[in-house]
Each structure stands twice: as C-alpha cells, then as structure tokens.
C-alpha cells in the first residue's frame, strides 16, 4: 500500500530478485540500498549502470541481496496483511460515513484526511506498531484461532 510503488518492483523482490533503479517514486520505500538492491540518483545513467553491476557482482559471489528482497516482501506485502490494511481503511471510511456531517468538511476532504492518516500509519517507519502486526489473517475474516 505504498503510494507510487511499482508492482513490477514488488513482484521482482517477491521472486528474490534484487532491484537496481533510480531513487524516485516509490522505489526508496522498497529498495534498501546495499541490502536488497541499489538505487541511483535520478536519471544518472552512469550510476544506474554501476548499481546494476554491483547487483550482479554481489549475487554472482553468493550474496544475499535476493534473500533480503524476498524477506522484505514477505514482511510488508503479504496478501493477508495487505487485505487487512484495506479492510481497516474501508471500516474507518464506513464509520465516518455513518456519522452525522458537521457541515465543516465535505466527503472528499474527509476521505483525503482518512487516507492520509492511514498512509502514515502504514509507512515503513511505523510498520512495527501497525494493527497489521497485531491481527492475524484468521481474525481478518472473523475465524477463531
């Protein structure tokens, strides 16, 4: 649920393939420089070439960039975890829609405010305290453990 997170990058990491790319958009949220890939300065093709070479050299020497790539996706982007995040957003939107309007905020403003609050709650920096860490997938669907 990262803004501007390219699905191809998430899919690559999920396959255990390290990523080399430019430090733009959602890539800095996904690629930890030197851990699961390398990032180059925006549009610096020479630096991108060095990043690609570094990935290849490390992986050919038995490095662990690929393992770290897979681990990141398993931790942050598992389907049950992502589903739970969306479910929590929908529940909060539904609760707010059911409340009487105070006239001070239109529906678009409310939605933006809620989305901003949720996006910040689930940013990589706050992952360890998120509800997604405390609730398992059986709880997502109301099943008991």
What do these coordinates show?
By secondary structure, the chain is mainly alpha-helical. It is built from 8 helices and 2 strands; from the N terminus they run H-E-H-E-H-H-H-H-H-H. Strands 1-2 form a two-stranded parallel ribbon. Helix 1 crosses helix 4 and helix 5 packs antiparallel against helix 6.
Short note summarizing the structure:
The chain is mainly α. The chain has helices spanning 7-14, 27-30, 45-60, 65-76, 79-98, 107-121, 131-134, 137-140, and strands at 19-22, 37-40. The protein has two domains: 7-74, Glycogen Phosphorylase B (Rossmann fold, 3-Layer(aba) Sandwich); 78-140, no CATH class.
Oligomer: single chain
From the helix content, strand content and strand pairing, which structural class follows?
A: mainly alpha
- CATH architecture tag of the largest domain: 3-Layer(aba) Sandwich
pLDDT average, as an integer? 78
CATH class of the largest domain: Alpha Beta
Could you name the ranges where pLDDT drops below 50 across 5 or more consecutive residues?
125-145
Distance between the termini: 26 Å
Strand order of the largest sheet: 1-2
CATH topology of the largest domain: Rossmann fold
Q: Radius of gyration, rounded? A: 19 Å
The coarse overall form would be elongated
Per CATH, the superfamily of the largest domain is: Glycogen Phosphorylase B
Helix content: 55-70%
Number of helices: 8
Extended strand count? 2
């Amino acid at each position: 649920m990262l803004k501007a997170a390219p699905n191809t990058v998430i899919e690559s990491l999920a396959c255990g393939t390290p990523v080399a790319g430019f430090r733009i958009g959602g890539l800095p949220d996904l690629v930890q420089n030197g851990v699961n890939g390398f990032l180059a300065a925006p549009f610096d093709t020479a630096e991108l070439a060095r990043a690609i070479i570094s990935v290849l050299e490390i992986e050919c020497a038995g490095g662990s960039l690929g393992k770290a790539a897979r681990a990141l996706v398993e931790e942050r982007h598992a389907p049950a975890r992502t589903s739970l995040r969306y479910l929590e957003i929908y529940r909060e939107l539904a609760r707010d829609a059911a409340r009487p309007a105070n006239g001070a905020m239109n529906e678009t403003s409310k939605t933006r405010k809620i989305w901003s609050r949720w996006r910040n709650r689930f940013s990589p920096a706050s992952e360890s305290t998120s509800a997604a860490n405390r609730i398992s997938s059986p709880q997502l669907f109301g099943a008991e453990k």
